[in-house]
Amino acid sequence: MTEKPVLWLPRRVSDATVERxxxxxxxxxxxxxTPGTPDEIIAMSAKVDAMMPCHSEHFSADVVSRLDPRxxxxxxxxxxxxxxxxxxxxxxxxxxxxxxDVLSDATAELAMLLMLGAARHAVRGDRLMRTGAWDSWxxxxxxxxxxxxxxxGIVGMGRVGRAxxxxxxxxxxxxxxxxxxxxxxxxxxxxxxxxxxxxxLPVADFLSLHCPATSDTTNLINAERMAAMRDGAILVNTARxxxxxxxxxxxxxxxxxxxxxxxxxxxxxxxxxxxFADHENIFMLPHIGSATTxxxxxxxxxxxxxxxxxxxxxxxxxxx
Length: 320
Ligand code: DGY
Hints:
The structure is a single chain. By secondary structure, the chain is α/β, with parallel strands linked by helices. It has 2 domains: 6-102 and 293-311, Rossmann fold, CATH 3.40.50.720; 104-284, NAD(P)-binding Rossmann-like Domain (Rossmann fold). The chain is 34% helix and 15% strand. It has helices at residues 15-24, 38-45, 61-65, 86-91, 104-119, 122-131, 159-169, 185-188, 197-200, 223-228, 246-254, 293-311; strands spanning 6-9, 26-29, 50-51, 73-75, 95-97, 151-155, 174-178, 192-194, 206-209, 233-237, 258-263, 282-284. Strand 9 (206-209), helix 10 (223-228) and strand 10 (233-237) form a beta-alpha-beta unit. Helix 1 (15-24) packs parallel to helix 12 (293-311) and helix 5 crosses helix 7 (159-169). The two termini are 32 Å apart. Residues 54-55, 78-80, 103, 289-290 line the site of (2R)-2,3-dihydroxypropanoic acid.
């Protein structure tokens, strides 16, 4: 009987994923569920053939240069791969995969929650109720911004951007988007294409970010671009914290240039930005865009499908 490949699961993934992984691999679990440190990743690379990390495990060029040649594949349990130096991993001959598609709906749902919550004062309303501070009502009380019929600007019309557009159509939103390439009419479904982010910003009542974090998109939404947004617009970010200049966002919120923001991603994770906490019109969640039971199972299974293909000598579906 051939020996099973050894697989390290640095984080606690879904029970169904662990069960399937244990059936087909010699699995090393991390019962503490703490993020894999560079030293752990390096030490573990000499003991395993494969790893299934999340975005919390960082494969920097330095870490990759110290990986043991035993490690053959990094099958990410994430769609984002900004935690991996792909060039360094390729140079080392390590195969890298991710888990696209399966988290698009869950992430789009969360973008909708953030957009609605930011637009309708969810943080303040919740606080008033919890603290017993709700003591009056008038037609001018907690008046928010209507989502139905408003114009939604989407930056990055990949799978998640398109899933969000589909949900936003249910709110009769007028969809505009910026993407490196224009979608086919079949995918565009009547959305208005903008060749530059500059032309999208002044028309959007709500701006939602759905592009990957790369060296080109760091601080994509900076002070200059926030100034170009509509007065009273609302920014939503379920992609990566790296995309937004957080100091500029704070200024835009303080000056009321932006009415609100809905954020699931921050420059510092875990932890977020404590300066945002004083502003109830910043509705925040702790990077849980893909955190549903169905999606976690699907992500784990997709990562395992990639591993299975690799160890069967086939090309993994999500080879990067
Ligand atoms: C992803 O898959 O990139 C999500 O952000 C969770 O890691």
